[in-house]
Amino acid sequence: xxxxxxxIPSRYESSRFPGKALxxxxxxxxxxxxxxxxxxxxxxxxxxxxxxDARIADEVESFGGEWVMTSQEHQSGTDRCFEAYSLSGESxxxxxxxxxxEPFLKPGQIDDLSAVLNKEVELATLVxxxxxxxxxxxxxxxxxxxxxxxxxxxxxxxPIPYLRDHGQEDWVRHHDFLEQxxxxxxxxxxxxxxxxxxxxxxxxxxxxxxxxxxxxGFKIKVGFTEYDSQCIDTPEDLERMxxxxxxxxER
Length: 251
What we know:
The protein is of the alpha/beta class. It has helices at residues 30-39, 54-62, 77-87, 107-114, 133-137, 171-174, 188-194, 201-206, 210-215, 235-247, and strands at residues 4-10, 24-25, 28-29, 46-51, 67-69, 94-97, 123-129, 143-146, 152-156, 178-187, 220-224.
């Protein structure tokens, strides 16, 4: 049986929202909500918060969660996940990187990702169908193209493929465009390898870390999900989400 560790990278400093992990969302901190949701996933054997700040560690301790202290120097959540895995004291087949700024994460999203994992998979992520023109052309939304075996061909902030015979306002009606959902699984031996890779040219161009892995020959398996990502990147995002909660649109 596949043994999977869920790691929630949660640093304190953020250029757009410092300390957001501790932001109050209707009586619970953001990190508590993420931890509770991740812990409901049936596929995870264990959940750990990987932080770089004692304030976050104290908060996780207060609700009985597990945490490890990691370096403040990490450039990505992937690097932080590898250090946390190294400190976990156990061996796992896969590590799943659970985004620490998604307080309304659906446990089923993690289980959807876990469903595509086997010993042949190096890395994995999720996609869902794009249904609106706004979503298709939003540069904050990462688009994915996959092959017939369910492996990623490319990721981009621009819509791909280009539909030559249709106006852009009609693209979503004539092709199944896919949006990446920001959750990753790493086979444990591969996680160590990708943390040693240097910044790549495609990664620089698109500002997408996964392109570094692909440019170096690693394969990314893609699974499908119906669940959206709802990241909180700014105080404004939090205000918007709180309004949805008050209206009953999100639980």
